[in-house]
From TrEMBL:
Localization in the cell: Secreted
GO cellular component: extracellular space
Chief localization: secreted
SUPFAM superfamilies noted in UniProt: Metalloproteases ('zincins'), catalytic domain (SSF55486)
Species of the source: Gloeophyllum trabeum (strain ATCC 11539 / FP-39264 / Madison 617)
Name of the featured protein: Extracellular metalloproteinase
Signal peptide range in chain numbering: 1-20
Cofactor: record remark: Binds 1 zinc ion per subunit.
Pfam short name (any one): Peptidase_M36
Length: 807
């Protein structure tokens, strides 16, 4: 109730926003009502339920751990856990749905409690076993005294309390809203506010109440229909449940008018079912009104808490299949036949996980420097389509649920619908100007392409004097923000396909139910007014928005815009990648200084350079266009030629290499050299983007992946990129996941080599070692006296492991 109360107390503020903005458009969902199926769902909450980890103990020496039966281990554990806690009438059975997860080797053993020879339907212990040991378990077993056989305790039931609270909230919510609305009258805007209040807050609450509480008093009204024999006859309890469950008012009225006739018409047969090794009788009831198949019924206990105590209530447990529902319901076996708990096995899924296209909208187009054109010096702008990846961005680049849009009020945020925007605002990136250089961003200016979604804006800056240079740059903010939005989404989709997904901490407002923390899309500031000649990225832990700030560069006239140099944008977004993959997405403190902080810079340079490269090898500078310097903003351009770029691991000892950027360029150069080794062996693919999935959801190999391989057990192995440049990107990202927090160059090197062992079985072991060793990072490279900021005395090693020595 607290959540509902909080939502309703916000009515005044939210409605005020609507009144202040009369031109609000609510989209196609205003055109007519959406059909909602009726569904029931409630039950008691068990405060005594726990989940606990188990300290690992040395195994007995009588048998190797892998040979111990995990089910027997679980049974032994539960027996010890419950030895002094259960009564003589209680016991347990192992459920037949226990299984071993082949991917992890964990066996999940499910235990069901039995009292008086009857299941406790919500008395469960799940035991997780690996290598012969229990490492965690969940426990909701009933610990109190067993009731007398077949008795049904008369205890308070929370269902009526739920409904009373709902009724109170509905009344008080409406009263508060009307009191706030006060003397506003009946104008058009007031009616709009009233409509939004009803749609977003009041109507959903009314639906919950009407679906679940319309017949809360029915058990008491019909109690006289049942006798003591109802403990042996489930039909009374079932028929009363069907009155509450059916969405058809005609069926309700017919049952109530012909109750005895319907009761006599329901016929039963009996089946023996096994629960573990315990046999129980199940009654199969046919001719049940509004059920599409016979209903299964059996006696069970359900735990009902009241106050600081929990008691067992004897219930009839039903499985009821209907047209739009499939219920598992527990109804008191003794009159009054109250619904104790009900679960609808049919779950609504208003958000499709991977739709083919964004929800009912056209694709956007952008006049931008296309992916692969690093900056204005190497190509021209062109019209590019919204080539979003359907796996990485299921709603496209302009779609996100209203519930995850921070600018929407609670009227809209209560909706589960997808909002399709016409600005540079989507699930992955919020791109906009930030001329004032402040933290405020939600309502900053961003281009709006309207219904056409054609983001085609001019970019023709003219030579001006210093006084007018800033104003001239700001004239083209639409083109600038569009470019930043386009590049950022391309980076999101690319990194996603190589493993930077929801559970590993990527940046998205909505995570499509795939895990990880959401509401953390990248806040991308174009022409940030807090400085010049720079760019930065702030990476908080998963679940908080990353912030990318791009600056103007006053290194030339007219000013150059960092937003238009893709390499700088990619570098900054790669900070979010490496920070969240190293040490886990909830730990943002792993790449702060020294070699680890330097590698945070180096990965960005390497990935930006790899993305802009092509089949015909070239050397590349970093930030050359924005800085108006042919050799860029690093000490050297990235090159295989040691005369052009002589960097080795020992270079970090030189003056000027204590800063993270200088350390980073050494790491990036080493990775660049290593990647060329893989390209020489495996060739080059023109596009780093993996192929789109087929209609059945599988990823085709095409010319991107090697043919799918299988284990000896017939399980699919991970897909392996076929070409050297794509393989190197995959190994670099996989290595980030494997390495520890605050890694050294050695740690990151070893993680990449281990990543190849996991992915390919180590077939590139020697190519990788030869690449690292050629720049001094061989197996015997070392450092003495390393300091947090990069100091120390390093020794290069150009050797390779013995396994890689050529005859």
């Amino acid at each position: 109730m607290r959540c509902i109360l909080a939502a309703s107390l916000a009515v005044a503020t939210l409605a005020g926003r609507v009144l202040a903005h009369p031109a609000v458009s609510y989209g196609a969902d205003d055109e007519g009502p959406v059909r909602r199926r009726k569904t029931l769902g409630f039950g008691p909450v068990h405060p005594h339920a726990v989940f606990r980890q188990v300290p690992q103990q040395p195994l007995p020496g009588f048998a190797p751990a892998p040979l111990r039966d995990p089910v027997e281990v679980a049974k032994h554990f539960v027996g010890g856990l419950l030895r002094d806690q259960l009564r003589a009438e209680s016991g347990f059975v192992v459920r037949k749905d226990s299984y071993t997860d082949k991917a992890t080797g964990v066996t999940h053993v499910y235990i069901r409690q039995v009292v008086n020879g009857i299941e406790v339907a919500d008395g469960d212990i799940n035991v997780n076993v690996k290598d012969g040991q229990v490492f965690s378990y969940g426990d909701s077993f009933y610990r109190g005294p067993a009731p007398s056989f077949y008795s049904s305790a008369v205890v308070p039931h929370p269902h009526a309390d739920y409904c009373t609270e709902l009724e109170y909230e509905l009344e008080s919510q409406q009263d508060r809203f009307e009191q706030w609305l006060g003397a506003a009258g009946q104008g058009e805007q007031v009616q709009l506010v009233r409509r939004r209040f009803n749609e977003a807050l009041h109507e959903p609450l009314k639906r919950i109440h009407s679906m679940n509480c319309a017949f809360v008093n029915l058990p008491y009204d019909l109690a006289h229909k049942s006798t003591a024999a109802a403990l042996e006859d489930p039909r009374h309890a079932l028929l009363q449940f069907m009155v509450a469950a059916t969405p058809e008012e005609g069926v309700v009225q017919d049952i109530l008018a012909k109750y005895d006739e319907y009761l006599e018409g329901m016929k039963s047969t009996f089946e023996a079912h096994l629960v573990g090794d315990m046999q129980t009788m199940v009654e199969v009831i046919d001719n049940v009104p509004d059920a599409v198949s016979p209903v299964k019924a059996k006696l069970a206990y359900v735990q009902v808490p009241h106050g600081d105590k929990t008691t067992l209530d004897l219930v009839w447990k039903f499985e009821v299949e209907m047209k739009d529902n499939w219920y598992e319901a527990a109804v008191s076996a003794k009159a009054p036949h109250r619904i104790v708990s009900v679960v609808d096995w049919a779950s609504d899924s208003p958000l499709a996980p991977v739709p083919k296209e964004p929800t009912e909208r056209k694709l956007a187009t952008y006049n931008v420097f296309a992916w692969g054109i690093n900056d204005p010096s190497v190509g021209n702008r062109s019209i590019q389509k919204e080539t979003y990846d359907v796996i990485a961005s299921p709603f496209g680049w302009h779609g996100l649920p209203y519930a995850n849009d921070p600018t929407e009020d609670d009227f809209k945020r209560a909706s589960k619908a997808v909002k399709n925007t016409t600005t540079t605002w989507g699930n992955n990136v919020f791109a906009h100007e930030d001329w004032e250089g402040r933290n405020a961003w939600m309502y900053n200016y961003r281009p709006d392409a309207g219904e056409s979604l054609n983001f085609d804006f001019p970019y023709e800056p003219k030579l001006t004097n210093t006084t007018d240079a800033l104003e001239e740059a700001q004239k083209y903010i639409n083109a600038t923000v569009t470019q930043l939005f386009y590049t950022s989404n391309m980076v999101h989709d690319l990194y996603y396909r190589y493993g930077f997904d929801e559970v590993s901490g990527n940046f998205q407002q909505h995570n499509f139910g795939r895990g990880g923390e959401e509401n953390d899309a990248v806040i991308a500031n174009a022409q940030d007014g807090s400085g010049y000649n720079n760019a930065n990225f702030m990476t908080p832990p998963d679940g908080q928005n990353g912030r990318c700030r791009m600056y103007l560069w006053n290194t030339a006239m007219p000013y150059r815009d960092g937003d238009l140099e893709a390499g700088i944008v990619i570098h900054e977004l790669s900070h979010g990648l490496s920070t969240r993959l190293t040490g886990g997405p909830a730990n943002s403190g792993c790449l702060g200084w020294g070699e680890s902080g330097g590698m945070g810079e180096g990965w960005g340079d390497f990935l930006a350079t790899t993305i802009r490269s092509n089949k015909n090898y070239s050397d590349y500078a970093m930030g050359a266009w924005a800085a108006n310097r042919p050799n860029g903003i690093r000490n050297y351009v990235y090159s295989l030629n040691e005369t052009i770029n002589p960097s080795t691991y020992k270079t970090l000892d030189k003056p000027g290499y204590w800063g993270v950027h200088a350390i980073g360029e050494v790491w990036a150069e080493i990775l660049w050299v290593v990647s060329q080794r893989l390209i020489a062996k495996h060739g080059y693919v023109d596009s780093l983007f993996p192929p789109a999935p087929l209609d059945n959801g599988t990823i085709p190999s095409g010319d991107f992946y090697r043919p799918q391989e299988y284990t000896a057990a017939g399980e699919k192995k991970p897909l392996v990129p076929k070409h050297g440049n794509s393989l190197m990107v995959q190994l670099v990202l996989n290595g980030m996941k494997l390495q520890q927090c605050r890694p050294s160059f050695f740690d990151a090197r070893d993680a990449i080599i281990q990543a190849d062992q996991v992915l390919t079985g180590g077939e590139n072991y020697c190519e990788l070692w030869k690449g690292f060793s050629s720049r001094g990072l061989g197996p015997d490279a070392r450092v003495e006296g390393r300091t947090p900021w990069g100091g120390g005395i390093r020794t290069d090693d150009y050797a390779v492991p013995k396994a890689c020595l050529e005859d």
